[in-house]
Design a protein that fits this description.
Pfam families: PPC. The protein is mainly β. 0% of the residues lie in helices and 50% in strands. A hairpin with a 2-residue loop joins strand 7 and strand 8 (88-94).
């Protein structure tokens, strides 16, 4: 007998099967960047539902909540550099539309917004070094025109401006380590003439200038690469209104300097290592008006020093590790005029020390002789005069500055299996992130007592999952990345069965990205403990998963990116440390993996930074910057001679900044800007037949429409753009005629709808868009204004369901969306375009759905369930021609078991069609899993006559209930029957 599943109405049932429970370890939100702003405490945390986002807490579980889902979906907005500017929170984040930009928040969802789009489009050029100076936020950023320069903002879009183009043109001055002292802002920058030197600014262009050319000419006086770079120990430090820093004047090596912001007041404090040698002062720390730092005088090795700003007052504090051997000193923290630090003495153990600046007043506070490493204190933090720190065994300790008063505060995890990080003093209370092998990493607080040290909130609850991602189909198999509790990110392959799902590369390999199919060979980037992040390949077996080439020799990393297959050759970008990031290609062999051309000769800052690699007319087209024409369109046939610039759209060294390359019927479309042509950021195209350059000027003038999300669908280019009147809305271009037009003003008036995630299903374009009335929901269009409409408001009112992962599966649209009752779940719109149906599993209770990957009539999905966390499942579309592709076959007298369904209405629900031979006997039990209606099971002949009906009083004890249905049926003849 065969049973075939027919249409199940009301809710769409999928047979989801767990392919592999890859990660069964505990989850955690990993709180970080804990920052106080007024009475509010902000931090970042990660959840499976939202990724890494902004959170706030008042120190209680009830008062801990996510502020805003900046980037809807699981990837998260990744807010960093949380900065308090006179009671206003600023940070950088990526909403998935505008790239990395400056954001602000007042602690509410409506009050969390992007301040200004500095670099247009979905860029990855994050502003850095956010600094409060006299109530204004200063930072380093690039707008794709002037390079990385000094910017400031007052929290408004109009008030966000570049202070000065220090290194004129598209070159970068890279302002670093902004430090506010009095009314002056000090920082390090390179104007292209004097090298990296000390600069100051009062916030105006005229008030921004080089303090002194300490190392004359192009040589760097304050090279960021010449000392350890750390947010904990910035190289510019304020001590009583005087700036201290380490610099090299070309004569004395790297030594201690000070400045009051004038040429005359900028001078060498002391040549600690006499002559041209460098003492390299680091970890500069202000303790009660005295400067502490570490330095090497070439006699005593690297030790603790102090200075009052004069040569006579600059001296070695104590030779902790006697003789010329270096003392490893780190984690300097001050309480009053005392500095606390970790140091290793002649015993080789690392312990907690303190010093008042004298030899006699420098002493060890901990001494763990049972360990060869010592206590190894880390993360020293002052809270109300009490020092908190974390030991080598990842436990939380405190010290009052005495040996007797230095002890374990609370054991987070037994036997060294805990971990404590991100310590922060917030209003006299310690907040920190902690977890253990038995407990996920979450937010904790402490008042300095064991009883008062507790978890604030369990943000990411439940069992962890492997979070499968980066699905790529290769010759009938699916490759993906998944997280194992033991080995981190691994490369996996699946043929859609449990037995056929296996790990290909796990031991010592991490950061797997860029999975790309090139004629049956899978290329990807990965990092191991020997070679750093490099180019790898796989043939689908563990033995055939190997490193292709160590491009950046040794433990350095070339970070291959932007993989694309062009006529069977892999093109990508990489940095070999000699040429900077340039264009490479590979045939899968070490010898055949080579640099195509050094477009911008030099290294690091001189990279051409190729990106947007796209196959067009059998060649590679991409964006690159040769240092002369700026970022423009290039092409390559894989040879050095055949790698050339196609057009100089914006003459000069600024470049047109081409982005979003898309091939539509023989035309290469992209966004770019050209003041020379009198247009801002608009849609350009290269005609593959004539070679002509075309442009659609949607917003005439220099402002530009900033087109984004360019997507090719059946000879049409769909994208979002802003014409200056209707806001950011849906547009289209017909590639055959070149004509472009606004499809619909979805959010009427000047407000934006930001349409994106364009997906075609049976001639209909589905996408997500926002309106003031419905929030961000699912929309569809046939390419006309009249045919553009809201599909469904899945989260009623102005709140958003944030549809995502739109996928065409067998002629139906699958997507995930959020509502308050169900959380993130999968939905489907069938061929008729009717209202979305909730996709449910006949095997698992789905807590939430995350990622979708469609392959033939199957769906690979990451689902979160109570038992498995977020893992990889496979589902078979049961609605193809009203039947599943594989029928269920039963032998005579067998029991089908439980068919789990949800009955929500009073009409008949077709369940199965089956074939049976005369005399075959079978048992069927239907389990009611939702609703309160009685379910009735009936069998019909092919002519529609009722043959049998379930008996509510009969069923297999003790599971059977009167709301379930049980039927024993004997086929009266050979034929086809329907089960309802």
């Amino acid at each position: 007998m065969k049973l075939e599943l027919l249409e199940q109405r009301n809710l769409l049932a999928f047979d989801f099967e767990l392919l592999a429970d890859i990660n069964d370890s505990l989850a955690g939100s990993s709180p970080g960047e804990i920052t106080q702003v007024g009475d509010a405490i902000f931090f970042t945390a990660t959840t499976a539902q939202s990724g890494r986002e902004l959170w706030t807490t008042d120190g209680t579980m009830a008062g801990t909540r996510q502020v805003s889902d900046i980037r809807p979906g699981t990837r998260g907005g990744d807010p960093v550099e949380l900065t308090n500017v006179d009671g206003v929170l600023y940070f950088t984040a990526n909403d998935g539309i505008n790239g990395d930009e400056i954001w602000t928040s007042d602690g509410t969802e409506s009050g969390t917004r992007m301040v200004h789009e500095i670099a247009p489009g979905d860029n990855f050029r994050r502003p850095r070094f956010l600094t409060n100076h006299d109530g204004t936020l200063y930072f380093s950023a690039t707008d794709d025109v002037a390079g990385h320069e000094l910017w400031k903002t007052d929290g408004t879009s109009a008030g966000t401006t570049q202070v000065l183009d220090i290194n004129p043109g598209s070159a970068n001055s890279y302002p670093l380590w902004m430090t506010s002292i009095g009314g002056e802002l000090f920082f390090i920058a390179d104007d292209g003439v004097h090298g990296q030197e000390l600069w100051t600014s009062d916030g105006t262009a005229s008030g921004t200038f080089l303090v002194q050319d300490i190392n004359p000419g192009l040589s760097d006086a304050l090279s960021a690469s010449s000392y350890p770079v750390s947010y904990y120990y910035p190289p510019l430090v304020d001590v009583n209104g005087t700036l201290f820093f380490a610099a090299d004047d070309g004569v004395h090596g790297y030594e201690l300097w000070s400045s009051d912001g004038t040429v005359a007041g900028t001078a060498l404090v002391q040549d600690i290592q006499l002559g041209s040698g460098s003492s390299r002062p680091t970890q500069l720390t202000n303790a009660g008006g005295s400067l502490f730092f570490t330095a090497d005088d070439d006699v005593n090795g690297r030790e603790l020093w102090t200075s009052d700003g004069t040569s006579a007052g600059t001296a070695l504090v104590k030779d902790i590790r006697t003789g010329s051997q270096n003392t490893t000193i780190f984690e300097l923290a001050s309480i009053g005029s005392t500095v606390y630090f970790t140091a290793g003495d002649d015993s080789g153990r690392y312990e907690l020390w303190k010093s008042d600046g004298t030899t006699a007043g420098t002493a060890m506070l901990t001494d763990d002789s049972t360990s060869s490493f010592g206590t190894v204190p880390q993360r020293q933090t002052n809270v109300n005069g009490l020092l908190y720190f974390v030991t080598f065994e990842q436990e939380l300790w405190t010290s009052d500055g005495t040996v007797a008063g230095t002890s374990l505060l609370k054991e987070i995890g037994p036997s060294g299996n805990g971990y404590v990080e991100e310590l922060a003093n917030i209003g006299g209370t310690l907040f920190f992130a902690a977890g253990s092998i038995r407990q996920e990493t979450e937010l904790w607080s402490s008042d300095g007592t064991e009883a008062g040290t507790n978890q604030v909130a369990d943000i990411q609850v439940g069992t962890n999952g492997s979070y499968p991602s980066d699905f790529t189909e290769v010759s009938g198999s699916i490759y993906f990345v998944a997280r194992s509790g033991d080995t981190g990110d691994d490369l996996w392959v699946s043929d859609g069965t449990i037995a056929g799902t296996q790990s290909l590369a796990s031991t010592g390999v991490s950061r797997i990205e860029n999975i790309t199919n090139v004629n049956g060979t899978v290329f990807f980037s990965a990092s191991d403990s020997v070679n750093g992040e490099e180019l790898w390949k796989s043939d689908g077996t563990a033995a055939g998963t190997v490193l292709v080439k160590d491009i950046s020799i040794g433990s350095g990393r070339s970070e291959p990116e932007d993989f694309v297959n062009v006529a069977g050759t892999l093109f990508f970008t990489a940095d070999d440390d000699a040429h900077g990031r340039e264009l490479w290609k590979s045939d899968g062999t070490e010898a055949g993996t080579v640099l195509v051309r050094d477009i911008r000769p030099g290294s690091f800052l001189d990279s051409s930074e190729p990106r947007e690699l796209t196959e067009f007319n059998g060649e590679l087209y991409f964006r690159a910057n040769d240092g002369i024409s700026g970022a423009e369109v290039w092409k390559s046939d894989g040879t050095e001679a055949g790698t050339v610039q196609v057009f100089d759209i914006e003459p000069g060294n600024y470049g047109s900044g081409p982005d979003d390359f898309v091939n539509v019927d023989g035309k290469l479309y992209f966004s770019a800007n050209s003041s020379g042509l009198g247009v801002g950021d608009e849609v350009f195209a290269i005609d593959g037949t004539t070679g002509d350059l075309l442009v659609l000027d949607i917003r005439p003038g220099s402002s530009g429409s900033f087109p984004g999300a360019l997507t090719a669908i059946e000879g049409l280019l769909f994208f979002n753009a802003n014409d200056g009147t209707t806001g950011n809305e849906l547009w289209r271009i017909d590639a055959a005629t070149g004509s472009g037009s606004l499809v619909a003003d979805i959010n009427p008036g000047p407000e934006d709808s930001y349409p994106r995630d364009f997906t075609e299903v049976n001639g209909t374009l589905f996408f997500e868009a926002s309106t003031d009335a419905e929030g961000r929901e699912l929309w569809s269009t046939d390419g006309t204004s009249a045919g553009t409409s809201l599909v469904a408001d899945l989260r009623q009112g102005p709140d958003s369901s944030f549809p995502g992962e739109l996928s065409n599966v067998g002629g139906a649209l699958f997507f995930k969306a959020f509502n308050d009752e169900l959380g993130n779940q999968f939905w489907r719109v069938d061929e008729s375009g009717s209202a979305p149906e909730l996709v449910v599993s006949s095997n698992f209770d789905i807590i939430q759905g995350d990622l979708l990957f469609a392959f033939e009539n199957r769906v690979f999905a990451t689902l979160k369930t109570e038992d498995h966390g977020v893992e990889l499942f496979i589902g078979t579309d049961t609605d193809e021609d009203d039947q599943i592709s594989e029928a269920i076959t039963l032998s005579q007298g067998s029991t089908l078991g439980t068919i789990k369904t949800i009955l929500g209405g009073e009409t008949d629900v077709d369940l199965y069609r089956f074939e049976a031979d005369q005399g075959e006997v079978f048992d069927i039990d239907v389990d009611r899993s939702g609703g309160e209606l009685d379910s009735i099971l009936s069998v019909y002949a092919s002519d529609g006559n009722l043959l049998d009906i379930s008996d509510d009083d009969v069923g297999p004890a003790p599971e059977f209930s009167e709301l379930e249905s049980y039927l024993r049926f004997t086929a009266p003849s050979t034929g086809t029957f329907s089960l309802r």
